[in-house]
Each structure stands twice: as structure tokens, then as C-alpha cells.
Design brief:
CATH class of one domain: Alpha Beta
Distance between the termini: 81 Å
Number of strands: 5
Strand order of the largest sheet: 1-2-3-4-5
Largest sheet: 5 strands, mixed
Helix content: 10-25%
Number of helices: 2
CATH architecture of one domain: 3-Layer(aba) Sandwich
Radius of gyration: 25 Å
Structural class: alpha+beta
Order of helices and strands: HEEEHEE
CATH topology of one domain: Trna Endonuclease, Chain: A, domain 1
Strand content: 25-35%
């Protein structure tokens, strides 16, 4: 006799059907409108909630403010494994890492108070990643805060240069 042959029996999976297959769920349809894409990012972004929309609008106001004051915006929402920085800009030869904080009402507190010592350390670590990626560890660096206060249709932008330094101990 020949070698033993194992016989495999396949059963149809219970309740699992592939999209678009006969008897299965319908194939996914394209969205009626393409979702927004941030320029230069290639990533699709959909504002999640009112706070997220406020943050995006405030960052756009802050970037415009800095451009009007002679800064060159290098990155918006720079992300690294260690964190995220709202804006990275150049002011002459200085690389400026900017944290943008916004508030709709004064009852929510001063936007500057939201840049806690923990957040400062995270921004510093992220800045180190940014500088190392580009071989710019020799460059002068500054950490600024832009406080955006929104009151109805009016927006007030307060720029705080040298808001904290890389030796933040908090």
C-alpha cells in the first residue's frame, strides 16, 4: 500500500462573506465628497470636534501672524515619536518652535497657562527630534507661545517669545 493520505474537508465559513461577493455585504462606496487634505501632508484630516476645529483655526491664525511678522513657516503640526509641535518657523537664523493655545472665553483661563511644564518638556523633546532629523543641532533655538483668544468674530493673538527654554524643569 501507498502512503496514508490525509483528507481535508473545507466547510463554508459561517456568517463571513466578502464585500461585493454574491450574498455578501455590498462593496464599499466612495465618499460623495473627497475629505479635506492638508497641503503638503498627503494625509486626510477631518475635524473631529469643535475643540479640534478651534485648534486648527488658531494654528492657521498663528501661522499667518508669524508670516506677517517676517517668520518663515517650516512645518505645521510636526509629529515625531516623542510628540507634536504646532508650528516650526525660522526667525532669521533661529529655529522657533511654537506652541499655539486658544480659548473661546476668558472663563476657560489664560491660554498661556495651558502650556504646562510637562507640555514644555514634550515640546523640547520633539524639537530635539526635528533638529536631529535635519542635522541642525548646531542651530540657535527658541520656544515661543502664541496665545489666541477668540471672542465672537474677533481674534486676539499674543506672541510670547522665549516663553520657556530647553532646560525646563517643571
Amino acid at each position: 500500500m501507498g502512503p496514508a493520505v490525509s483528507v481535508l474537508q473545507f466547510r463554508r465559513a459561517q456568517g463571513v462573506r466578502h464585500p461585493g461577493a454574491p450574498g455578501g455585504p455590498p462593496a464599499p462606496r466612495p465618499l460623495p465628497h473627497p475629505p479635506p487634505v492638508l497641503p503638503g501632508s498627503g494625509r486626510v484630516t477631518v475635524p473631529r470636534d469643535p475643540r479640534h476645529r478651534l485648534g486648527r483655526a488658531s494654528e492657521a491664525l498663528a501661522a499667518d501672524f508669524l508670516r506677517r511678522h517676517g517668520y518663515r513657516i517650516l512645518e505645521r503640526n510636526y509629529r515625531a515619536a516623542c510628540g507634536e509641535v504646532d508650528l516650526v518657523a525660522e526667525d532669521g537664523d533661529c529655529v522657533v518652535f511654537v506652541e499655539v493655545k486658544a480659548r473661546r472665553t476668558a472663563a476657560c483661563g489664560d491660554p498661556r497657562e495651558a502650556v504646562t511644564p510637562r507640555k514644555q518638556r514634550q515640546v523640547v523633546r520633539t524639537a530635539e527630534c526635528f533638529l536631529q532629523e535635519r542635522g541642525w543641532l548646531h542651530r540657535e533655538v527658541r520656544f515661543d507661545v502664541l496665545a489666541v483668544s477668540l471672542d465672537g468674530e474677533a481674534a486676539r493673538v499674543e506672541h510670547i517669545p522665549w516663553a520657556f527654554d530647553a532646560d525646563c524643569r517643571g
